[in-house]
Amino acid sequence: MANGKFINIDYPFKDSKDGFFLNLNSENNQAIKADLLHLILTRRGQRLYNPDFGTDLLRFIFEPNDELTLEGVKGEIRDVVKKFLPKLQLNEINIYDSEESEYAAVLSITYTITDDVFTTSDTLVVKL
């Protein structure tokens, strides 16, 4: 637990075994990944009182798997991260075919976050 405090809600949502409604993060690295996952996987317009939160990744779902589409996905992610997680610096965004399904893709984001308290780098991998 970070200084005896919880930071945010864990992703994916699941019941807490600690008596809370949902599992909570208590470590910075877990909290950063959860924030990034919540942002990327939330559809824009889905969050009440904050309709700009999230991405429009679903608009790419039936687009051809070409460089133009991949750059559109990367640009969408860069824009929302810049707006909602300004201390998070995206180092690299890669999208590649899933080995499990020909209809899926894998998103890999390498990032660095610099805060007043700590600096950390990590990679997030999401199956789309």
Keywords:
3-stranded antiparallel beta sheet, 128 residues, alpha+beta, 2 helices, globular
Topology summary:
Layout (H helix, E strand, L loop, with lengths): L7 E2 L14 E2 L2 H14 L25 H18 L3 E10 L7 E10 L4 E9 L1
Antiparallel strand pairs: 1-2, 3-4, 4-5
3D structure, described in words:
The strands form 2 sheets. This protein has a 3-stranded antiparallel sheet, with helices on one face. Strand 3 (88-97) and strand 4 (105-114) form a beta hairpin. By secondary structure, the chain is an alpha+beta fold. The protein is globular and about 45 Å long. The longest helix has 18 residues, at 67-84. The chain contains 2 helices and 5 strands. Helix content is 25%, strand content 26%. It has helices spanning 28-41, 67-84; strands at 8-9, 24-25, 88-97, 105-114, 119-127.
The rounded Rg comes to 16 Å
The helix/strand class is alpha+beta
Oligomer: single chain
Number of distinct beta strands: 5
Strand order of the largest sheet: 3-4-5
Question: Largest sheet, if any?
Answer: 3 strands, antiparallel
Give the termini distance in whole angstroms.
Answer: 31 Å
Low-confidence stretches: none
Shape: globular
Calculate the mean pLDDT score and round it.
81
The SSE string, one letter per element, is EEHHEEE
Number of helices: 2
Percent of residues in β-strands: 25-35%
Helix content: 25-40%
Q: Quick gist of this model?
A:
This protein has 128 residues and is α+β, with helices and mostly antiparallel strands. The chain contains two helices and five strands, in the order ββααβββ.
